[in-house]
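Running log. JK asked me to keep both predictions on one page so they can be read side by side. First protein, sequence followed by its C-alpha cells:
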Amino acid sequence: MRRNRETVLVRRTVQVELVPAGTPVELEEGTWAEVTQALGSSFTLLVEGQLVRLRGSDADAIGKTDPTPVIDHGDVQASDVEPLVWEALRTCYDPEIPINIVDLGLVYRCELLPFAEEEGKLHVVIDMTLTAPGCGMGEVIANEVNEKVLNLPRVEECTVNIVFDPPWDRSMMTEEAKLALGL
C-alpha cells in the first residue's frame, strides 16, 4: 500500500538531519521534496532519494505551520506532571517509523525526582533505547525528548539516557503499534 505523499518546495535554505545518520545538512531553497511523514513535531522528507528530518520550528521552510502544540497546562501540581511527561513522549517519533517512541517500546524508564535547588520543581530522568544500536538519529530523538519534557510545567531539569540493555526487539511494542505496522 502506497501512502499519499505531498510534494513541497523548499522556500528557504534550512538545516535538516539526514536519516538514519543524524548528520546535519543544509536543504537549499528551491529544492523539491516529498513529505513522507508528518508526525509529532517534525517532518520526514524524501529529497533526491534521501530521507531527511525537518524540525517543526522550521515548517515554514516547506510552507507548513509548526505542528508543535501550544498547551496551557495551567497551575499543575508536581504530582500531576508524570502523565504530562508520558503525553509529551507520545509526540516523539522515529523519523522512519510512523509510531511514537512510547508505543514502539523505546522508553524504559521515566522517573520524576525533586529538583534539589528549588522546592516544587522536578528533575525528570528518562532511559530510552533505539531500534538499532547504530542508529544515528538517537541523539536527535533524545534532544527532542529533552526539549519537550523541559517545556512542561514544574520541570526544571531533564536527563535523557540512551541505553541498550535490555536490547530492543519487536516484542516491546504495544499491540496497537504492531497492528499499525502490520506485524
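And the second, directly underneath as requested:
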Amino acid sequence: MGVARIPMACVSVVFTHPAFRKQGVATALMQDAIAFATSHQRSLLLLDGIPKFYYRYGYTDVFDLSSYQVDRNAILAQAAGNYAVRTVTPEDATPLLALYERHYGSYTGSFVRSLDQQRYMLEYQATRRHMVASLGPEGVMKGYLLLSAASHPHTALECVADDWEALLSLLQYHAHLHDGLQDIPQSLHYRLPPTSPMVRWMREHLEVPDTSEWETGHEEWSVLRQTYHHRYAGCMARLVHFPSLLEAVLPELQRRWRQTLACWEGAITLIVGTEAVTLHISGRRLWLSASEEASVRLQMSPQSLTQLVFGYVPISWGLKESNLALSHEVLAALTNLFPVDHTWIPGSDWP
C-alpha cells in the first residue's frame, strides 16, 4: 500500500470432493485459514472468490478488474518504431523486477517479491504463459507483456512500458501474433490500471484508420474500457486483526497526510467490534494510540474498514454505519487519508 507493507495471507484454492459436500468441510477449512492467519500475525486474508460463498466468512469486495479493448487495426496503423521484442528468460529477472516495481509497486495490492521469486515465476510461467520484453535501441529493457494461455491469445494479463515506443512495440507484437489466423479478433484486451500512463498514451496515439461506417463518433472507439463487477464474486479480503492493520498502513497514512494541504488537528477513533484505534493529527504529524478519548468516534464493520483501506469505496460510504454528521474539516481529513481507486493487483500475482 504505497510505502506501507501489509502482512497478508492468501487463500489460493478451496475444494471439497463432490461426495463430501454440504457437510461442513469448506467451513472447517475457511475457519482454519482464519486461525492460521491470526496465529501468524497476518492483518488481512485475500482471495479470488467464487460467487455467493466467501462473504459468509467475513470477506468483502476490494477490487474490480479493469480491462481495455484496443482496436487491432488502430495498433497496426501506427508506423513501427526501432524497439525490438523478444521472449524473456529467467536471466532477465533483474530488469523485469525493476520494471514491475517501478510501475506497480506503489499500488495497494501489488506484492513484494524477491529476485529469487521473480526467477521462479519466470520458470513457472514458461509452461503456462508467454512473456516478451521490449528493448530500446541501446538494448535496455523498456517494457514487457505477459500473455495468457493459448486459449485466450487476444488477452494480455499484464503490460508494462516506460514510454510510448516501448508500449507500441508490445502492442504491435501482440497484434501480429494473429496474422494468418482464420478468426482474427477485431480488438485485443489489456488489463491495466485506469491511472496508468499507458492508458493515456493509447488514447493519445491510437486512431481507427477507417471510420467511414461509424454512425456517431461519441459511441465509437479505438480504446474501450470495461470494469468487471459482481457482488461477492471477485477479489475479496477479510480483516484478521484491526490494530495490526492500522499499524501496518501507518507509514502510508503519514505520507498521505504530509502531502495534503489540510490544516485540521485533532483525534479520530475508529472502532471495529470491541477494538479501537485512535488517529492523532497535529500539524504534519500523524500517529496512533489505543486511547478512545477522541471527540470523533466512528463505529465501523470489519468489511467497511477493509474496503476503506483498499480504496474500494469513498469515506462517505464507509462511514454510513456511524450515522454521524461529520464536519467538513473532519470529512476532508479522512478523505485525504483514505482516498479511492489506488488498488491494482497485477496479472503476474494472480494464481
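Observation for JK regarding the second prediction: The chain is about 30% helix and 25% strand.
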